[in-house]
Amino acid sequence: MKKSVAASEKPVKAKEFDKELFKRSVEYNVRTLYRKNLEEADAQQIFQAVSYAIKDRIVENWMETQKAYEKEDPKMVYYMSMEFLMGRALGNNLINLKAYKPVAEALEELGLDLNLIEDQEPDAALGNGGLGRLAACFLDSLATLGYPAYGCGIRYRYGMFKQEIRDGYQVEVPDNWLMNGNPFELRRPEYAKIVKFGGYVSVHTDENGRNVFTQEGYQSVKAIPFDFPIVGYGNGIVNTLRIWDAEPVECFQLDSFDKGDYQKAVEQENLARNIVEVLYPNDNHYAGKELRLKQQYFFISASVQEAVEKYMRKHDDIHKFYEKVTFQLNDTHPTVAIAELMRVLMDDYYLTWEEAWEITTKTCAYTNHTIMAEALEKWPIELFSRLLPRIYQIVEEINRRFVLDIQQKYSNVPGVDVQEKIRKMAIIYDGQVKMANMAIVSGYSVNGVARLHTEILEKQELKDFYEMFPERFNNKTNGITQRRFLLHANPLLADWVTAHVGDDWITDLPQISRLKVYADDKKAQQEFMNIKYQNKVRLAKYILEHNGIEVDPRSIFDVQVKRLHEYKRQLLNILHVMHLYNELKEHPELDFYPRTFIFGAKAAAGYRNAKLTIKLINSVADVVNNDPAINGKIKVVFIENYNVSNAEIIFAAADVSEQISTASKEASGTGNMKFMLNGALTLGTMDGANVEIVEEVGEENAFIFGLSAQEVINYENHGGYDPMEIFNNDQDVRKVLMQLINGTFAPGDPELFRPLYNSLLNTQCTAKADTYFILKDFKSYAEAQKRVEAAYRDEDNWAKSAILNVACSGKFTSDRTIQQYVDEIWHLDKVVLK
Ligand code: GPW
After folding, report:
1. Biggest alpha carbon–alpha carbon distance for the chain
2. Which of the residues bear the PTM N6-(pyridoxal phosphate)lysine (predicted)?
3. Cα(452) to centroid(ligand 1), Å
């Protein structure tokens, strides 16, 4: 084994951690903030005091970093995203400052417990799920690799709602995350921007004979940035997440035309208040709400204006903007940036269309995160043009020129129906603005988020665009940060890994493959299983405290945590639990390995079937957990309010990772990677990044089942399949389905789960039945679950597979993903601090 130097012994760029100074600073902060001694302060106050002490250290590095950027003038990426699911900052900052252990010790000397202090911090839940958490992992990797980057987003007053379960139902509770103030943020009023909505565009010709477009009669909002430090791991780099708050413009700043217009002042005040009020809780779903488009344009206009101004503070030639700046658009939500950049370049810097287009198309790059039709953003032109009249004009012109390009390219090509091409590819068609089309046409890169997903984009969903612009398309398989999801989330396993292979994995995850030689080592296997057991005890304690359910840490922890969505098929999982329960009831003598089925999921507030699935899971839990006849062999737990901080506890404790989406529907998945890194075995379909996970770890160390993506697509192209056939022939399926409508799990209201039953069998609706192939995959899933049980009984072999999962997770670090974005899309240079 190569002896690698422990990270904390390497020369550190930042100052050595001074325990005594830190302790004094905590005491000082408690005094100045709260006029209290440490003994008098409550836990929240201590959290604040500790955070301010840490912020002091961060700010030094932050200034150094920004000074270096100022001096070296490197190219920067602006990662534009409606969502940044950051979670808690304190623990992560300590980890990345390499100060976690010394701070924990210093606090212990003060009689304080760092874990409890961390628990005082609310999650920064400015995101729904995978897409928002990916953005957070990317920021961590960018800072750790030393790449100059800004995250640009919205400072929602209320983030993702808190989920409470009452009587088995999800209840949404507002997430007032800023209630106690946010110690790490910095308000930057000096960078405020004005964003304009509505009104109309007037055109006049200036003295040079050129057309000048001005927006008039508009309402405006002041955008004020708040900066969050993004601390790189052990390298002194601190990047910035800049999220925008909205304030009403002061009355004296009103258009002279509007001076003294009280009505207008009130409207502007309301607009400002509403705009950043709350994150839309929809995952993979477009709702077409006007306020959502306002949010999009609000933070994009402010971010684009700032990016251009920042560039112009150092440079004089706007034509070379793209040499120093690139915008990565996180799905279509921020794609209005394309038209906004065109607007700024033409209206504020007087560039011609051609000049502005050249710059814009070399600046913007787009990531696609789904092929699900209901997620595609298509804004009605009535709404779009009313809210953003100047932007709409520009989109129309982009579209006009693009349609000409299509005609030019295909008019004389035999066998091509040009009208059909236009119908599919135009940016404006059918009275709608199609944001994905605009993103593809107006940028230099289009990427999918896993190999299979990118293939489906190229060969099916975006086939016409791929044909026209093949060089733009590329794949960037997602990744996760091992610093949060192993080093912070699972200290026992992290220390064990470091003891065996050194700590290079912290910044170079593929190094973790050196664990492979321990996979067959009996002692290593025992140590690994013991760590897993302790993590299961930790989760069991959390479940008892938060759910009041007792679970046995010796049972198999079988976990599905992710947003609730029909395509993710939590329903398949719970139907199978019902089936197992039936088997146990019929054959009490059955040799059944105890299993704890753990669910965690938020449903969009208006998503009926998703919410009903939560109720079903809780109803099954009620019956199963309280039936003495099955002797506690099955437990079902629904963890309330699944979020980033409890996710860390959950991943560390999982034996089985449920990744069971309908093949072709999950673009990548990232939870699958977090489980793997923590030594859970994947039970999954060949979907998204599961394909690549299995490729890395070997099919013998995972449990794969179900239709392939191509099979699913073939069925879909032929109008689906007939679930009745399965219902009629498979008695297990039939029994479980009948239990959905005979009151087995809803004694007082047997019709309660009828909508779920109908979604699978469609006895009277007009919609297609079982569009997510749940019944079609049921048998194959049940068989895979049998293999899971058999495998778990062979403990040594299970430990071997689990260790191999950890050892083979190297590909799935977001450090690798970011390096590929840098090499193949952004072309940034590293900045090293002296
Ligand atoms: F619809 N994803 C998400 F594509 O979490 F925009 N929310 C979303 O609204 C969308 C995608 C969108 C997820 C994908 O479902 C998941 O497969 C992927 O791993 C993740 O984005 C990050 O790429």
Report:
1. 93
2. 674
3. 15
pLDDT-wise least confident of 205-209, 697-701, 796-800: 205-209
Position 16 scores a pLDDT of 76
Task: Check whether residue 162 and residue 40 sit in a common domain.
Answer: no
Q: Are residues 469 and 558 in the same domain?
A: no
Q: Which structural domain, as residue segments, surrounds residue 603?
A: 482-705+773-812
In a domain, 528, yes or no: yes
Of the chain, the percentage scoring pLDDT greater than 70 comes to 96
Q: Return the pLDDT at 764.
A: 61
Asked if 690 and 779 sit in the same domain, the reply is yes
Dihedral, 709, 715, 720, 721 alpha carbons, nearest 10: -100
Give distance in angstroms: CA of 127 to centre of ligand 1: 11
Q: Is the CB of 603 under 6 A from ligand 1?
A: no
Same domain, 650 and 688: yes
Residue 676, classified by CB atoms within 10 Å of its CB into exposed (0-12), middle (13-18) or buried (19+), is buried
Identify whether 419 is part of a domain: no
Catalytic residues: 369, 562-563, 568, 670, 674
Q: Alpha helices of 3-42 — where are they, by DSSP H?
A: 19-34
The ipTM value here is: 0.97
Pair 428, 347: CB distance under 8 Å: no
pLDDT in tens, 813-823: 999 999 999 99
Q: Which atom of ligand 1 is nearest to the CA of 333?
A: 6
Contact criterion met (CB below 8 Å) for 426 and 399 = yes
Determine what percent of the chain falls in helix, strand and coil, rounding each to the nearest 5. Answer: 55, 15, 30
Index of the ligand 1 atom closest to the CA of residue 133? 22
**Per-residue pLDDT band at 5 (split at 50, 70, 90):** very low
- DSSP reduced 3-state for 632: coil
DSSP 517: G
Question: Relative to the CA of 666, which ligand 1 atom is closest?
Answer: 17
CA of 558 to the centre of ligand 1 (A): 23
Residue 3 confidence (pLDDT) above 50: no
Residue with tokens 């958490």: 133
Residue of the CA atom closest to atom 19 of ligand 1: 669
Integer Cα distance of 208 and 367 in angstroms: 40
State in Å: Cα 660 to ligand 1 middle: 16
**pLDDT of 129-151, one tens digit each?**
999 999 999 999 999 999 999 99
pLDDT at 13 over 50: no
Q: How many CB atoms lie within 10 A of CB 598?
A: 23
Task: Quickly state the pLDDT bin for 256 (edges 50, 70, 90).
Answer: low
From the CB of 688, is ligand 1 less than 6 Å away? yes
Q: 669: Cβ below 6 Å to ligand 1?
A: yes
CA-proximal residue: ligand 1, atom 12 (nearest): 284
Distance CA 483, CA 487 (A): 5
